[in-house]
Each structure stands twice: as C-alpha cells, then as structure tokens.
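tool_log.txt
---
The assistant was asked to compare two proteins side by side. It first ran the structure predictor on the initial sequence, then on the second. Raw inputs and outputs are pasted verbatim so the downstream comparison step can read them without reformatting.
(1)
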Amino acid sequence: MFTKKSLGVALVAALALGASGVASATIVNVDGVTWNTASPFDLTIQSLNLRETSVSGVGDVLHGYGQIGSINGNNNFCMGCDLTFTFQYTVANITGNQVAFDNGSFQFYVQGAGTFSFGNPGSVGGTPWVTLSGHTAPNTAFVYPDGQLYALVSGTVSHPTSGSTGTGLVDVTGGPAAFWLNSNSVPDGIGGFADFSLNSSFLTFPARGCGSTPTTNLDNICSYPIEGNGSLVGRTAVPEPGEIGLLGLGLGFLGFLIQRRRKQADRKA
C-alpha cells in the first residue's frame, strides 16, 4: 500500500525520469503526429494536396489549404489522423513576373483520418496543431525587398503555368507542436533566424466543372483554380542536455517541496 511518503518519492522519480526522457527521445509524438528527430531529413514537412486562390493586384489576399503528405520522408506519420492546413498572404508588390507577399499566416490541424477531402475546402479543421507567421526577409533577386513570400511566375500572375515557384521564411507562433518546431535554425540574411524555409511550385489547374472564372466563396472548390505542392524545411527544436538537466532539477525540487509539505501536514494531524 502506498503511503504519502512513498508517493512523494515516486513523484520526484517520475518527474526526473520524464525530464530525462525528453532529452533522449528521437521519436516525437504531438497529438498523434510523429516523426524521428534522428532522421537525416529532419525536419522536412511536405504537402500532399494544396489548392490556392488566384491573385492579380496589390492588396489581393491569397488563400489556400491542403494536407501534409510526409514528415522526414515518412508518409505514415499520422496513423488514424490527417494533418491539414490553411494559409493566407497579401500581395505587397507586383513587378513583371515577380510577386511579393506579406502578412502571411498558416494554421495546421489534426483531424480524423479520411475527414479531409481535397475537393472540399470546408473539410479542413479539427484540433489546432501549430500556427506559423510569415518572416520578413530580403530576396536580392526581387525588385521589392521587404516580402515574406516571393513568387516567380510563369505565364501571368492570375493564370500561372508550369514552372511557377515560391520561396519564403516562416516562424512558429503557437500551438501544441510549437515546443518542437520553434528552432530558430534558418538564417534570414539580415542577422536574424526563422524556423522554416518555405518552398512551393504551382500552376493553374481548376477542378473539373469549375470553368475559367473562379468563384469568391472560399468554401467552394471553384474558388481555388491553382494547384501546387510545398515543403517546410527546418530543424526539430530538441532541448540542450543542460536545459533538460535544469528542468529535471527544478521538477525534482518541486516534488521534494510537495513531499515536505505532506510530512508537515501529517505531524499536525
């Protein structure tokens, strides 16, 4: 039978072991989404399905959604769930075939396996997993220097063709996965660091039956005439051993205080 004393000792041991487990873990699991931090590709998050709205002028807002297809090259990273996302950027400048965006944001969700439908934008949702925001950094190849996302378009801005690409940087801003993804591992070229580099390719490919003129209802697949894919590349933010040691010490001391208070309560009883 457990006594209050033994419970206190067990608490100290459990907290210390929990802290050391974080340091030695290579498999991370956040709400059912798993990946191996020891992978040579760590950390690479690639989309499977991505759809975007069309933009044509400064101030237009690019909306999009999609599904993650693999993490570190593993497509079985989310057993029993789908990892989906929505995003938006605002057009800041158009110069020829160069488009610069700012005010970028992403929201990732964990939802039941099979509940996401590529043809149904409204099917994205579930438990928030991580949020990202655009990171402003210069791209010397572009006329406009203050963007968060830079697109080089083949064809026209409103009707891009094969060969259109986008690059940018993003920061982790919140969500259950933020602890593992907020690595500050990607130099931004101006003395700072972002958490991920973003790379994408895209072209105009409306869904069958939508016609050539997009709708404006963001719950309608016909509002997303552009198809593409993308990847986020960074590093898993694994805590340093020294930080984990301090965490274990702090948790152990907390357990000691709880045990001491229980002893004092026993004497008074």
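(2)
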Amino acid sequence: MEGKTVVLGVTGGIAAYKAAEVTSLLVKGGAEVHVILTDAATKFVAPLTFRTLSQNPVLTDMFSDPGEWNVRHVALAEKADIVVVAPATANCIGKVASGIADDLLTTVIMATRAPVLFVPSMNQAMYENPIFRSNLERLLALGYRAMEPGTGYLACGREGKGRMPAPEGIVAEVRRILSTRQDLAGFTVIVTAGPTEEPIDPVRHISNRSSGKMGYALAEAARDRGAKVVLVSGPTALADPAGVEVARVRAAREMLDAVMARFEDAHVIIGAAAPADWRPATVAPRKLKKGDGPMSLELEMCEDIIGTAGRRKGGRVVVGFAAETHDLIEHARSKLAAKNLDFIVANDLGRPGCGFGSDSNEVEILYSDGRREDLPLMPKRELADRILDRIAALLGR
C-alpha cells in the first residue's frame, strides 16, 4: 500500500477501539492514513490515539480551522484512494443510504469518487433489522462495498452476528481493493507452507526450522491479485490469512492428502513448504524413556508432495522451492527435472538474512527451459509478488 492514501472513518460503536489497530496496520503497510472521528466516536476513543498512530491530524469537525486553505471535505475526498468506515454503525449507513451528509465523514463519503468500504458493527438484532438490511443493500446496489461482520460474543452480552472483523482482515480487504493487479482472477492457487512433524512417539517428532513465512506471503499476494487461494499449512506460529482457505496439517502424508483433495480444481500449485524427507518407520505408542538405553531409529521416506503434483500436473503450473546449504544450483536443477516443475526457487540457507525464520530472502529462479534468474535480497512479501509475476506470465496473464 506504499503511496496509497486511506481515509479511515470511525463512528460511535464500542468496536471503535479496534480501529486504532486498523490504523497501525495500515501505516505499517505503507499507507498514509487520515482519520475522521464522528462526535460519538470521540466518546469511545480519544483523537490523540489516532493522531499518534497515523502521524496526521485527526479530524472531528467540518467547520474547524484546517490551518490551510482548502475545502476540507473536498480535499480529503479527492486525496483518498479508498475511504474505510470501521466500525460502521447502523446510523452512519442509514444516513449515507438516504443521501444525508450532515457531518465531515458523511460529507467526505458523498464527495469522493474513491471506493468506499463499510465495516458494519452492531448488535445482532440491529444487524437483522429490515430497515438496516434495506439500507445496506441499497448501498451495495450503488457500488459501495461492505464486509460481513463476525459471529461471537457481543458487547450486549449475547452471542450472535455483528462483531467487527479482525483488524488484519479489514486491512487485507483494503489491500485487495487497492490492488491494481487482478491478473490471477479466475484462477485457483494451492500454496503449501511451513514444516511437517513426523512422530517418533506421542511427545517427540522429526521436523525442521521452517517458519512458513514465505508460503503465507505467497498466499496473501495471490489473494490480493484476485486468485482463489488454498493454503495447506504445516504447524506454524502464524495466523490464518484473511480471505484464504486454510487447511492445517501436521505430517507429510496429511499435507499430500490435503493438496490432492483440491488438485482437480487448481490451476497453480506452489510448494513453499519444507516437508520432512524422512519419518520413523514405526511410531512408539508410549513415550520412549531414557532408561531404555541407546536407541536407533529406522527411517522411511516421506511422500514427495510437490513431485506428485508435478508428475500429474497436466496443464497446471507447478512451482517448487529448494532450500540448500551447499551446491545450491546443482541440487535445484536436479529437483527441477525430477519433480517436473515449471520453475524452482532456490535459496542458500547460509546467506545472511535469508531462509528459515527471516522476513527477507535472496533467491535464484531456475526454469525448465534452462534459463536462470537471480533476484536480490528483498522482503518475502515483495518476493512473493515477483514469483507470482512469473506464474502469471506462464498462465498467459
């Protein structure tokens, strides 16, 4: 969202405190954020909170002195790349649907040509009220956007629908709307991520240090470019990306089953996971004890997940990863051919700032036609888009 301007409107609901985290995440993502608080919103959260997080003045009054000569609501409306109202109360949505612009926020919404995203948050009875539903449906018919509220414990003390979505989900939706590239729209992309854990006994396993960050970055980037994304993830500490189907697995066999269960509908399979190559041939039913003396494990090979996809790919694009500690190119070329991949992304785990657990990577891309491309050190999210650029080209996009 680098270089994008987001006008964030905060209305008077209890979920207004969550808008502070939305602001923080937008700023961290590179956006310039201008916050408008309605008078009711200031009763829940102080303007100082948003001024500190956004590093911009917080606007509450259409008629206060702006400190510079402009028509404030017009200037903000023209500057915005998107207007987000989070939380959006029934009152605010009703006013906009009725053409009422009696405060700064509703006036900016009326004046802007940018996309407007409403994030409703209210009591379930209010959300289901036919008057509110009619107002919301009218806005959607006019081209405004709205997120579906979550279900759970509400401020009124009851369980039901009406919770404001998580800040991460709101920012993901903003990112998706602002994305200028929708070159993967209509395609289904499967991404594997993270390690697998192959059990030795009920409390021990064989695994590796993969964090899953690269696979999750690829899933988020593909989602933002319009794809339907399935993320098949081994055990990680990462939160499920919003707007992505996530299948959580543990062992390599489970990861293969999850991929192949969705294989027929997929156009692209990206093997960014680091599944175990070996597993114990037998799993002890009880915890193995130290007093049992020296021990050796008989190992057997795990399933080759991306190799299985590559050998059955048909017209699909199948991409793999090779994380190596030595002879990077030789090992990557061998995997590229053996697994029948369209290209493979190779990274040297010994390079500073690269590989497992890091937020950046430096890679070589090797293609099935013999080409080789070197990409410099960059954040994994940026690298994800570079990889998807190559996939989009293979898909004819």
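---
observation on (2): DSSP finds 13 helices and 19 strands in the chain. The chain has a mean pLDDT of 91.
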